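Project outcomes to date are best conveyed with an example. Our students and postdoctoral researchers have been running inverse folding experiments weekly, and each run begins with a structure described purely in tokens. The record below, which covers 473 residues, was selected by the lab manager from last quarter's runs and is presented without edits.
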């Protein structure tokens, strides 16, 4: 998972500037660094991070990443590369910026892909760091711009605005930076700025906690530390122990939002969202077999849910060969999705909780967790001609899968257009139930999965009830 680097956090220095990555309780996750240097083809910045993670009784895994951003003599961004390695798995993206486009080469152990992405006029590449130093907050309380996210190969809409509260005694003050995919909130972070409006620290929901990136010295940054467990910190205690009949029936949830940061929850075929009556700022979420209105059912939406992506390579021969025999069966599309779910479990005999991988990478690794199971099932569904999307959010823990009970955990599953409607399918847990709370709907990319984790941290549980039919009705 990618960490936001503190671009512009300190004035240029000889050598790297170092940062600690720490969880809310002070547990160390890793470190990062930012360096400005003169490269062979012009000035460039180098941002690196390293994290150590360990889940349950699995081996420690080292996550490292490096992003290089190169400018021409006029100061224009001309090249961005990003290398990410999770254990033995790796991926590399190189983007050359030419004439309003990003010419992209993407490589991993599963193969190579190229694409050309149009960039809008005025697009930024620095997450807005270059705007902060000259920002007149009184005249322009809200900065809004488009930013190229090389890791996810998308152009995001970014909004920076002052956070509630006055400056402290040292003149430091907080601002909020929000990233959007269209209208959907994908990430939110709190930035602490100094008097000169340089970034001192970034805090954002992640890994089931609040993660802060703050300056430190080299020795402290590189000091060894115990690996961090994402799963154990991502647990949300359930207000109630959920019975099996309730899980298979109708559950009504009620939420408010932390720090007043609200966002629209998606509606699926099983999930309906409405404002809480008489309680501004709260929402009621009903989940059952037919509670929700479903995703849009127009032809354009269904066509988009069939296209291959960098994460769902549904046009690849390996995926088409797996999906083909199921696609040719004389059964309903719902039954085809169930059969493909069985194949997913056969293709993933080993559970691995660290990292996030595409459908092809999952086939190659033959391992993963619920995110890889959802991505692989969505890709196989598309390869079989069934429109699919990946849903991410929370699910009530099953002891046999997570080893821990009575908590809600981050989870991903698939929403598919079958037999005239949108229906959910869960390959990892083998069935969908009313404890699946969808927070994002997308194509299974790392940004969508991370967004669900962040948004879960912004929800405050206000109520949870089993809805039962009245006797005689």
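After processing, the design step wrote out the following sequence:
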């Amino acid at each position: 998972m990618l960490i936001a680097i503190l671009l512009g956090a300190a004035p240029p220095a000889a050598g790297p500037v170092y940062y600690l990555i720490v969880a809310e309780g002070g547990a160390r996750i890793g470190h990062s660094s930012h360096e400005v240097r003169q490269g062979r083809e012009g000035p460039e910045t180098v941002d690196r991070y390293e994290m150590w993670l360990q889940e349950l009784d699995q081996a420690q895994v080292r996550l490292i990443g490096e992003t290089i951003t190169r400018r021409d003599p006029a100061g224009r961004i001309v090249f961005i590369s990003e290398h990410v390695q999770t254990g033995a798995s790796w991926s590399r993206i190189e983007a050359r910026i030419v004439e309003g486009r990003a010419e992209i080469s993407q490589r991993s152990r599963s193969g190579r892909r190229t694409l050309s992405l149009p960039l809008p006029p005025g697009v930024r590449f620095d997450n807005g760091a270059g705007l902060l130093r000259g920002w007149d907050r009184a005249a322009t309380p809200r900065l809004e711009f488009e930013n190229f996210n090389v890791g996810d190969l998308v152009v995001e809409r970014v909004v920076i605005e002052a956070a509630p509260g006055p400056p402290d005694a040292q003149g430091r003050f907080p601002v909020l930076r929000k990233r959007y995919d269209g209208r959907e909130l994908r990430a939110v972070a709190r930035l602490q700025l100094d008097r000169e409006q340089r970034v001192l620290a970034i805090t954002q929901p992640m890994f089931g906690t609040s993660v802060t990136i703050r300056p430190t010295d080299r020795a402290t940054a590189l000091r060894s530390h115990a690996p961090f467990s994402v799963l154990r910190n991502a647990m949300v205690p359930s207000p109630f122990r959920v019975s099996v009949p309730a899980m298979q029936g109708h559950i009504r949830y009620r939420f408010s939002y932390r720090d007043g940061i609200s966002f629209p929850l998606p509606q699926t075929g099983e999930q309906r969202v409405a404002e809480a009556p008489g309680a501004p700022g709260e929402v009621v979420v009903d989940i059952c077999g037919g509670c929700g209105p479903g995703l849009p059912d127009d032809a354009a939406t269904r066509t988009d849910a069939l296209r291959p992506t960098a994460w769902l390579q549904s046009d690849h021969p390996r995926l088409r060969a797996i999906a083909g025999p199921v696609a040719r069966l004389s059964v309903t599309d719902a039954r085809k999705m169930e059969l493909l779910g069985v194949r997913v479990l056969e293709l993933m005999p080993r559970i691995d909780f660290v990292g996030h991988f595409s459908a092809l990478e999952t086939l190659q690794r033959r391992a993963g967790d619920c995110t890889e199971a959802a991505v692989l099932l969505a890709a196989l569904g598309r390869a079989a001609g069934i429109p699919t999307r990946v849903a991410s959010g929370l699910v009530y823990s099953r002891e046999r899968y997570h080893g821990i009970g009575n908590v809600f955990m981050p989870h991903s599953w698939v929403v598919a257009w079958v037999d005239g409607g949108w229906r959910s399918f869960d390959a990892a847990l083998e069935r969908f139930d009313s404890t699946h709370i969808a927070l994002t709907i997308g194509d299974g990319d790392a940004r969508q999965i991370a967004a669900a984790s962040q948004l879960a941290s912004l929800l405050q549980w206000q109520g949870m009830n089993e809805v039962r039919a009245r006797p005689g009705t």
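The chain has two domains: 17-219, 236-467. Residues 1-12 have pLDDT under 50 and may be disordered. The training component of this project remains on track.
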